[in-house]
Known about the structure:
about 200 residues, alpha/beta, Rossmann fold, seven-stranded mixed beta sheet, 7 strands, globular
Amino acid sequence: MTETSRPRIALLGSGSGTTAARVIDATQDGTVDAVACLVVGNNSRAGIFTVASDRGVPTAHLSSATHPEPDDLDAAILAALQDAGVDVVVLAGYMRKLGPRTLAAYEGRILNTHPALLPAYGGQGMYGDRVHAAVLEDGATCTGATVHLVTAEYDEGPIVAQAEVPVQQSDDLDALRARVQAAEKALLVDVLRRWPER
């Protein structure tokens, strides 16, 4: 498949970019038959920009700093995605809701990962270490990772795939986080690897 005919992936992130790095590397080593064509970040100092630059992927900083009005920001994100010919959008640690224009234009083509087995430990405010801390506090014996489609509400879109991660008696926050994050990234790459066949 030529580069022009391969699915084109955009990654949106707010943080260090470890998930974006995993996805971009998978597209560049052939694990995922797609092109990572754009990285959009809403924090100008976020590590995701370095990740993208190091791998030769174009970037755009789009945030309330560049577009104070939410509708203008939504329009700018959508324009960036369309200008890059994006087919699939991946939220890679993106800490903001997408606007209605972008959601409508890419309905069914926006993926997010969540560090638990949704619908458990989902919803507004449930992200990162907050999820792992809640799992440990509840004494849960199993957690995991979810890839789901993005809708207007946090963590409520249809589930695409899940991977279970047993909670071990010796787990603390760091240990559980490390295993869930590894499962999360592997699951996302597997979903993207199979995505054209859905």
